[in-house]
Design goal:
Immunoglobulin-like, about 40% strand, five-stranded antiparallel beta sheet, three-stranded mixed beta sheet
Amino acid sequence: MLSRSPKLLTCLFVSCLGMAVACSTSPHAAQTAADSVRVSGVVVDSAGRPVTGALVVYRLFDTGTRLGVSDSTGTFVGSLPSAGKYQLLVIQAGVIRLATDSIEFSAGGASTPIRLQLH
């Protein structure tokens, strides 16, 4: 019988998310680097301290999911396949700690760094 512990359910969610990312195919796969969007930011805790090793998930429903990981200074960088509205999730220790509303990313030029503050 499958236990309903939060830790097990979280592990299953993260595993399924990883498999979905690995198996996803994007209809926009042939896009050039000029179409991609650079994303950067920092993940901090509720006191403003950097969070190391947080998984940052960028979700755009018709182009799949991209992942990033924060470094020792909380900084993350990534590249999105195209401009659009993305939802960002921050997962730490297997638990979703933050889910943003849609954030609009534009093609071309540098993006404004994003500050993701956990509660």
